[in-house]
């Protein structure tokens, strides 16, 4: 029972932190204003690890320091999960590195799902919400290509549903690969 609770807590904390790091990198790619309350909160929550890494990896269009921080967080998460499973992590180092990369991919896919769901719900419940421009800017690079393919049915945008299905299939593939490599879930 303790092991299940520890795995749940580790998964929750590291997934939220990894998503924040990836959101920080994505905020820079889509050029979101830094004075936005959401981007400001993400920056404050992740500065402690990203700013020291910026000295090694200076920023460009892509925030490589945030991506490296996400990889470091994923490596720590995977290592802790292996230790909780009762396995010596030093015996599995190359495989752990690959699983850490898959974990970052999984965090990114989960972030896409949650941002899309939040945007879709707000568009129905409160389209004038101050969060809508932010969510639209974050999700537009994923939804706009799908909007060009899918016709609008009576004013209903089906692109979030299609994106959700595509990302969910990708999550299944990533999870299956990671589980087959480690014999436990990430």
Concise overview:
This protein is 76% helix and 0% strand. It contains 6 helices and no strands. One of its GO terms (cellular component) is membrane.
Question: How large is the share of residues in beta strands?
Answer: under 5%
Average pLDDT value?
90
Distance between the termini: 18 Å
Largest sheet: none
Question: What structural class do the secondary elements suggest?
Answer: mainly alpha
Instruction: Please tell me how large the radius of gyration is.
Output: 18 Å
Helix/strand order? HHHHHH
Instruction: List the total number of helices.
Output: 6
Considering DSSP H and I runs of 4 or more, what fraction of the residues is helical? Answer: over 70%
Poorly predicted segments? none
Shape: globular
How many structural domains?
A: 1
Count of strand segments: 0
Describe the protein:
- Keywords: Membrane, Transmembrane, Transmembrane helix.
- The chain crosses the membrane at residues 7-27, 64-84, 96-125, 161-184.
- This is Membrane protein.
- This protein is an all-alpha fold and 186 residues long.
- The protein has one domain (2-182).
- It contains six helices and no strands.
- Helix 1 (2-29) crosses helix 2 (37-54), helix 1 (2-29) runs antiparallel to helix 3 and helix 5 (132-149) packs across helix 6 (159-182).
- The two termini are 18 Å apart.
């Amino acid at each position: 029972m303790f092991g299940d609770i520890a795995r749940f807590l580790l998964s929750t904390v590291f997934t939220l932190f990894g998503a924040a790091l990836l959101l920080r990198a994505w905020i820079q790619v889509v050029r979101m204003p830094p004075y936005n309350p959401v981007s400001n909160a993400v920056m404050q929550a992740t500065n402690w690890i990203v700013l020291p890494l910026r000295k090694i990896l200076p920023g460009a269009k892509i925030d490589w320091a945030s991506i490296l921080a996400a990889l470091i967080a994923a490596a720590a998460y995977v290592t802790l999960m292996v230790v909780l499973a009762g396995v010596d992590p030093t015996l599995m180092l190359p495989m752990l590195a690959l699983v850490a990369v898959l974990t970052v991919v999984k965090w990114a896919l989960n972030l896409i799902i949650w941002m899309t769901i939040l945007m879709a719900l707000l568009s129905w419940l409160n389209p004038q919400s101050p969060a809508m421009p932010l969510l639209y800017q974050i999700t537009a690079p994923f939804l706009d290509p799908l909007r060009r393919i899918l016709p609008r049915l009576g004013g209903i945008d089906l692109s979030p549903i299609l994106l959700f299905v595509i990302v969910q299939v990708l999550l299944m593939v990533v999870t299956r690969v990671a589980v087959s490599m480690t014999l436990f879930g990430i």
